[in-house]
Amino acid sequence: MTVQIIARDGEPEYAVLPWADYQALLQAAGRQQPTAAVAPTPADAANRAPLGELRALREAKGLSPQTLARSVGISPHYLALIESGERQPDAAILRSLAWELGLEGWS
User: What distance in Å separates the CA atoms of residue 12 and residue 93, rounded to the nearest whole number?
Assistant: First the structure.
C-alpha cells in the first residue's frame, strides 16, 4: 500500500492513497464501496454553476464587466470569454471571481 502523508505545521493532516487501496480498506472494514463519483469541492462548484451564471451574478451585484475584470486582475475581454464559455479560467481566477461575487465557500 502506498500512502502519501501531507503535514501542516509539522503535524500529519491528511493521508492520500491510491483508489484501489482505499476500496480494499473499505471492503476489509465491511463498508459499502462508494462509486467513483467524489463530492464536489468549492472549485468544482465554481467551475460548474457560477461560470454558467457568471454574467447574471455580475449583473445582480451591479458590477460592470470592466469593474469585475479589473478587481480580479484580468482584462474585460478575457472576462467576456469566460462569461461566454469560450475560456476556462484557472483556479486562482476562479477564486478571485468567487470572492468578488460573494459566493459561499470562498472565505
Answer: 30
